[in-house]
Design goal:
The chain is mainly alpha-helical and 203 residues long. It has helices spanning 13-30, 35-42, 50-63, 67-78, 90-95, 101-113, 128-140, 149-159, 164-173, 179-200; strands spanning 2-3, 115-116. 63% of the residues lie in helices and 2% in strands.
Length: 203
């Protein structure tokens, strides 16, 4: 995603951590991890929470994963011959078809926020990686002023909440998932945390 009028304003440490994890998921879902990213995953550590345990599992799997295997796994899951095992798009999860109303609604919201698709990206904007990246950018102010909690909640409830946890559950259980099964677990748990946090905020 490209940003217009990006600002670097004060963002709480907690929100920066949230944005970092959204970015991390977006990076893992935008393409197969290279050696540098696998090394970063290997260095992760977690606590006794569900998310901490999921992060530890990612680190364990990354330690035994080489880039060629990660590349094959990513292609089998998301690219394949004709199509991959999963179609990681909001339109598909919400309507059963690609390039449907959820994509049009997202593009309208992106335009209103001054967010445009990067020139070298050709995927529809409603893919999971782009949505994770957009959420991160909104939190830290990559697309202007940092989004308020209400603005974050509105975007999340509209474009991420209705389907992302389902996608991550599918990623956990996918036939071709090994490294990405752990990514699916971490993503699902993180979406559950975000859902509960937004639910507890005032409407």
């Amino acid at each position: 995603m490209a940003a217009n009028n990006a600002q670097n304003l004060e963002v709480s440490a907690e929100d920066r951590l949230r944005a970092d994890f959204y970015n991390f998921l977006g990076l893992l879902l935008s393409g197969p991890p290279d050696q540098m990213l696998l090394d970063q995953m290997r260095g992760l550590s977690g606590d006794e929470t569900d998310l901490g345990q999921a992060i530890q599992a990612m680190a364990r799997v990354a330690k035994v994963t080489k880039p060629p295997a990660a590349d094959r796994e990513f292609n089998a899951l998301f690219i394949g011959l004709g199509r991959g095992e999963l179609l990681p798009y909001a339109s598909f999860y919400l309507t059963g078809f690609l390039n449907e109303k959820p994509l049009a609604q997202l593009r309208n919201d992106m335009a209103a926020r001054g967010v445009t698709r990067a020139q070298n990206v050709f995927e529809p904007e409603d893919n999971i990686a782009s949505l994770m990246e957009m959420m991160a950018g909104m939190i830290v102010g990559r697309f202007g002023a940092p989004a308020s909690l209400d603005e974050q909640k509105e975007f999340w409830n509209k474009h991420i909440g209705p389907w992302a946890a389902h996608f991550y559950s599918d990623l956990e259980a996918a036939e071709n998932s090994v490294l990405y099964a752990s990514v699916g677990t971490a993503g699902r748990v993180f979406m559950e945390i975000e859902r509960e946090a937004f639910r507890m905020t005032a409407a």
